[in-house]
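Hey,
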Amino acid sequence: MALSHDAQHGETTAPSPAGHPQPPQPDAPAKLVFSLAFAQFGAYLAVLTPVTVTLALRVSQIVPEADRGTALGQVLSVGALLAMIGNPVFGALSDRTTSRFGRRRPWLAGGMVAGFAGLLVVALGSSVPVLMLGWALAQLGTNATLSAVTSCIPDLIPPHQQARVSGVVGLTISLSMVAGSALAQLFGDSLALAFLVPGVIGLAAVALLVVVMRDRPARAGAFEPYSVKEFARSFWVNPRRHPDFAWNFAGRFLVFTGASCVTSYQVYFLMDRLGYTDGQVTDKVFVGTLVMVAATVAGSLLGGQLSDRSGRRKPYVLGSSLAMGVSLAMLASAHSFGMYLAALAVFGFGEGLYLSVDLALAAAVLPNPDESAKDMGVLNIGNALPQSLVPIIAPSLLALGGGGNYGALFLFGAVAAVLGALSVQFVRSVK
C-alpha cells in the first residue's frame, strides 16, 4: 500500500481506503513557515550580498580597474561551479542521514557554519586566489544549507499550501538582497563587516529553524551506500522517464541565466555606463534593490494567492519569465538611472510571480518523495549553473564593439528568460 508523508511531522501515514475521501490536511504551523522563510532569508543574505554588491567592491580593492571584470568572473564562476556540484551531493547525503538529530538538521547547521568560515576568508583575503578559495567554501557551505531548506517544502508543507509557502519563502531571496544592500551601505567604511554581519544573521536564522522544525532520520537501509555510482546519480534524473522534471529543469536554468545577467554585473553597469563612483554605487544599488523588491513582493503575493486558488502553475511561470525578458531588454537600452529603476521594477514583478510558484511546481514534478533533497538538488543545479556560466560568458559579450557592451549582455539574458518561459509549457502533469 502506498504511503504519504505527514505534512507537519515528516512521518508516514496510510491513505484512506478506496472510496472514502481523504480528510483535509491541516495547514503547516505558522512558526514553521516563518522559520523556513527566515532560514532561507539568512542563508541568501549571506551568499547574495557578496554576489550583488560586496564581492565586486572587494575585487576592485585588489585588482586594477581594467582587470576587475575578468577577476570577478573568475571568483564567481569557481564558487558557483562548486555550489552546483555541492547542492545535489549534499541533498543526496541529507536524504541518507540517519542521525538522531534528523536528516536535514545536520546539513542546515553544518553548512551555515562552513559558509560563514568562507565569508571570513573573503573578508580578510588580499589576493584573487584567496578570494576564490574563500568564496568556494562560502558557496559550498550555504548551498548545503539551502539544499536542506528547499527540501523542507515537500517534506513539511501540505500540497494545498505549497504555492503560498513557496511564495513567502521565495520572497526572501529579494528581501535578502535589499537587506544586504542596506548592510553594505551601513558598513561602507568597513567592507569586512559587510561580509561578516550577513553571515552572523544567517547563522542565527538557520539555528531558529533547527530548533523549530520536526525532523526525522532516514530509515536505515532505505538507500544504497553512497558510492561513486550514487555520486554520479546525484546529478542525474532520467529525462526520458521523467520528462516533466527535465522541462522544469530547462526552464529554471534559462530563467536564472537571465536573472544572473542582472545580479552579477549591476555594480559595474552602474559604474561603467552610468558613471557612478565606488562611493556612490552602494547607494544606487540600495535604491534599485528597494524598487525591485517592492515589485517582487507584489508579484509574489499576487501570484501565490491566484495560483493556489486556481490550482494552475504554468501560466504564472509564462507571464513571469516574459516579464523578466522585457525588463532585461529595457536594461539593455537604459542610459539613465530612472530607466534602470523602471527596468528593475518590471524585473522584480516578474521574479515575484516566478518565485510564487517555482517551488510548488518543482515539488509537483519530483520523481521520488523519499529522495526529495537529492532531486531538489538536481533542480537547484538549474539555479547555480547560470551563476557559473554567465561570468564566463559575460566578458566576451561585454567586449563586443570595443568593450562595455552591456546591451549585448542583457539581450542575451532576455532571450534566455523567454526561452525558459516556453520550456515550462511542455510540463504535462501540472496545469
